[in-house]
Here is the input.
Amino acid sequence: MKIEESTIEEATDYRVIIYPASRAFTPKESKVITEKLYDFLATWAAHGKPLSSSFKVEKNQFIIICVDEDKEAASGCSIDALGKVMKEMDQEFQLGLFDRMKATYVENGIIKTLKLQDFKNGIKNGEISKDIQVYDFSKSSYVEFLGQFLLPLNRSWAGMYLN
Here is the structure.
């Protein structure tokens, strides 16, 4: 069961699952991703009970899944089913959705993704500006996502590299 966009309340703390791609989607990829997720979420269920869920493609690079767990909690099996669909798309388009050893940031208005070690070294040796903003894919609620998905380097998880 889909959360209709008109019923999303920003005060509601939906569960959020973030799938970050290592690059922007092509128009064809965006279309296929949207169609597959729309079809999947329409029938997504936990123990036979429909999950009230929705998704959005943020910045043409991040897939954000929302689940209203006040109505029905996502179970391990339902999360596995979502993971299966996401892995299929990841393999089809080589998106790097499951690569957690990367950092994505905004520098001069451009979204960039680097291997974590290259990002760390770039900050330490000054190749990457300290004025960047960094994405945090660990957010698990909609309220966190809205307020803390993109933060200045010094307030982000990557601030530990500033020494």
Q: What stands out?
A: The beta strands are 15-20, 45-46, 49-50, 53-58, 62-67, 102-107, 110-115, 133-135, 150-152. The radius of gyration is 17 Å. The CA atoms of residues 123 and 129 lie 7 Å apart. The chain has a mean pLDDT of 91.
